Amino acid sequence: MDFSGKVVLITGGGRGIGRAAALAFARHGADVAIGSRTGAELEAVAAEIRRLGRRVVALPTDTTRREQVATFVTTTVAELGRIDVVVNAAGIGILKPFQELTEEELDRMLAVNVRGVFTVTQLAAAEMAKTGGGLVINIPGILGRMAMMQAAGYCASKFAVTGLTRAMALDLKRSGIRFTLLHFGGVDSSFWDTIAMRVQRDKMLSLDEAARAILFAASHTGNGVLNELVLQPESHQM
C-alpha cells in the first residue's frame, strides 16, 4: 500500500485508533494532518511522523466546535496542499444502564460522535470536491449495527453515524467523494481505561489490526469502493 503524494486528515489523532492510523499512513508515504483535543499527545504523534520523513499538521481541535474544525481543514489545505482521505476517529463512549444515563451524557455523545463527524465531513468534503474527490472513512464500530446492554446512548450515536454516512454518500457521489464504514468489534484502546464494565481486553482487536483495516479501506482505487467492513475479534466472530 503506497500513499505517496496523498494527504490524510485524521480526527482523534492523539491516541487510540486515530494515532495508530496516522502513523500507519505516514509509514506508507502519506502526509498527515492530525487533530484532537489533547495538544501534548498530538505533538508527540507529530514528532513520530516527522521522524518518518513525512509532513504533518498537528492542530488541537474540538470537533464539536465548527470554527476549530474549519481552521483545521483550511490549515491542512494551506500547508499540505489538499485532502485525499478523511478518517473520523474522534469519539467518546459512556456505557451504563439506560435508566442511569443522563441527558447531558447523551447530548455529549451525540455532539462528539455524530455532529463531529457531520461537521468534519461537510467542511473537508467541500475542499476534496475541488480536487476531484476522495475518501471518507467513518468508524461507527460494531455498535453502529448491533445493540449491547448498557450502551443505549452510545448505540444511538453510532447507529446515527451509520445512517448519516449512507445518506452523505448519496448526496456527495457526484463530487467524487466515496465513503467507507468500518464496524470494528472491541479494540484494545484507551477507550476502555475509564469504562467500569468488565471486559477481556486481551481478546480484543489490537490497534495495529484496526490501523491495517483503515489502510486497506483507503487502498482501493479505480471504480471499486469498500462500502462496509466488519472486523471482529476471533472470540466474537459471526
Give a concise summary:
The protein has 238 residues and is of the alpha/beta class. It has helices spanning 16-27, 39-51, 66-80, 103-130, 152-172, 207-218; strands at 7-11, 31-36, 56-60, 85-88, 134-138, 177-184, 228-231. Helices cover 42% and strands 16% of the residues.
CATH class wording:
Alpha Beta
Number of domains: 1
Tell me the Rg in angstroms: 17 Å
The tally of beta strands, per DSSP, is 7
How helix-rich are the residues, as a percent range?
Answer: 40-55%
Q: Give the CA-CA distance, first to last residue.
A: 28 Å
Q: What is the CATH superfamily label? A: NAD(P)-binding Rossmann-like Domain
> How do the strands of the widest beta sheet line up side by side?
3-2-1-4-5-6-7
Shape: globular
Order of helices and strands: EHEHEHEHEHEHE
CATH architecture: 3-Layer(aba) Sandwich
DSSP strand content: 15-25%
Describe the biggest sheet? 7 strands, parallel
Structural class: alpha/beta
- Low-pLDDT segments: none
Total helix count? 6
Using the coordinates shown, work out and report the CATH topology: Rossmann fold
Q: Round the mean pLDDT to the nearest integer and report it.
A: 92
